[in-house]
Amino acid sequence: MSMQLLQAVMSTQFDNPKYKLMLAQMAHEADDNNTCHTAIGDIAKQCCLNLGKTFQCIQGLEQAGYIKIEKNIRDVCFKLNPARISEKGAH
Q1: Structural domain harbouring 76
Q2: What are phi and psi of 35, to 5 degrees?
Q3: What average pLDDT does range 5-30 have in this prediction?
Q4: Which of 21, 24, 44, 66 sits a CA distance of 20 to 30 A from 89?
Q5: For residues 46 and 25, is the Cβ–Cβ distance under 8 A?
Q6: Could you report the per-residue pLDDT of 32-71, keeping only the tens digit for each?
Q7: CB of 43 within 8 A of CB of 80?
Q8: Domain at 11, CATH number
């Protein structure tokens, strides 16, 4: 778990409350490199969202610059952007 990242997420106001929920879950699961390797289905379940809403939130988070989706042959991981999250919190 990345405590600094989780603190940044929790102290930031987001336009969409689902973004905050999903980023908090991703930060909770993130390693020291701010990368979350949790499956999309698990994120959906942990955030009490269906897969469609989860995919929409992930796309929105990526478009807003909060995460970067990294795909490889076997799985998908999410690289969280602490600078962008902190920048949003400063406004």
Answers
A1: 3-90
A2: -110, 130
A3: 93
A4: 44
A5: yes
A6: 999 999 999 999 999 999 999 999 999 999 999 999 999 8
A7: no
A8: 1.10.10.10
Total residues found in the chain within this entry: 91
Please report where in the chains the tokens 């990345």 appear, as a residue.
Answer: 2
In order of 13, 23, 65, 86, the CA distances from 52 in angstroms are 23, 17, 20, 27
Q: How many domains does the chain have?
A: 1
Global pTM exceeds 0.70: yes
Residue 52 to residue 6: CA distance in whole angstroms: 25
User: What b/e sequence results for 41-64 when a residue is b if at least 16 CB atoms lie within 10 Å of its CB, and e otherwise?
Assistant: eebbebbebeeeebeebbebbeeb
Tell me the Cα Rg of the chain. 12
